[in-house]
UniProtKB/TrEMBL annotation:
InterPro entries: HD/PDEase_dom, HDOD, RNase_Y/CdgJ. This is HDOD domain-containing protein. Pfam families: HDOD (PF08668). Residues 1-97 form the HDOD domain.
Length: 185
């Protein structure tokens, strides 16, 4: 997610977002899940047993089982660590696509929310479709447009074709980083 977020932040489409901020937001967006795993791992068992294939399903399972979500826990953790409000708000609202249209949302937060929401959706898409490298660029772009891009973003322009061409390199960089960290799927 962080690598996809940086790629998007470096495009002219999102000139208000610093790539470093996008990277940090990509790393921290699910902070609440890690806090919950550390503090109460047994509480998460029910959310994982229910199974979920998309971010919206995870939020629903958490809310139903626990009465709260990892986004709320993550925002509390951000505040406790005195992280900037921008990052705290990303952690809190990264599953709320409608938040980008709120009249009080500043352009930087709006753009960063779209970046993180898109990167999150794309990461779910890639994980659910391991055959994505076999698709030609136009087919992959079309699938991303229909399965990842949210209507709530109000027709925002995304550099999808550029991203599709860069995805093999981004994916390879992620695999390499996972290898260096000893993280495997």
């Amino acid at each position: 997610m962080a690598q996809i977020a940086v790629f998007l932040a470096r495009t002219p489409y999102f000139s208000t977002v610093k790539p470093e901020t996008a990277y940090m937001a990509g790393l921290l967006h699910d902070l609440g899940r890690f806090v919950m795993l550390q503090v109460a791992p047994d509480a998460l068992k029910d959310t994982d047993v229910r199974g979920w294939g998309a971010a919206e399903e995870l939020i629903s399972a958490e809310q139903s089982s626990l009465g709260f979500t990892h986004t709320v826990v993550g925002q509390m953790a951000c505040r406790k660590m005195h992280l900037p409000a921008l990052l705290s708000n990303i952690v809190r609202y990264h599953h709320h696509h409608e938040a980008v249209r709120h009249p009080k949302v500043l352009k930087e937060l709006r753009d960063l929310l779209i970046i993180i929401q898109f990167a999150d959706g794309l990461s779910f898409f890639l994980a659910a479709n391991p055959d994505w490298p076999e698709l030609d660029a136009d087919a992959l772009k079309q699938r991303i447009e229909t399965e990842v891009v949210s209507e709530a973003w109000g027709g925002v322009r995304l550099p999808l074709l550029e991203l599709v061409h860069a995805l093999p390199m981004i994916y390879a960089d992620c695999e390499s980083a996972c290898g260096m960290l000893g993280i495997r799927k």
